[in-house]
Amino acid sequence: MISLDDKYDLKANSAMLSGTQALVRLALQQQRVDAEAGLNTGAYISGYRGSPLGGLDAAFWAAGSRIEEANIHFQPGVNEDLAATAVWGSQQFDLLDQPLVDGVYGMWYGKGPGVDR
Questions:
Q1: CA–CA gap between residue 87 and residue 16 (Å, rounded)
Q2: What is the pTM of this model?
Q3: CB neighbourhood size of 69 (10 A)
Q4: What is the DSSP string of 31-94?
Q5: Which of 13, 42, 71, 91 has the fewest CB atoms in 10 Å of its CB?
């Protein structure tokens, strides 16, 4: 039997979820795939709350400890440009002398940096 609680249970073959919840599950799934490959990865996700995907922030916050345990950092941006820049910056982890992770995958959402200029 499928339950609404299955949406973030990666062992469940089927789940009922919205599009924004699917994006949260995708981030969780990526971490799982990386861990199974022996990689210690993290994620940085940012975007603009006023975008068409503005509800994504609520979905990540609702996932709570699941995203923290998966080393996923969600930080909404003040605008599209800052959010995109923050995600881009997360990809520079390898410039550190001793990075804490093998890699960082990023996710950005918004209307498009610079579209309104």
A1: 29
A2: 0.84
A3: 11
A4: HHHHHHTT--EEEEEEEBTTSTTTTHHHHHHHHTHHHHHTTEEE--BSSHHHHHHHHHHHTTGG
A5: 13
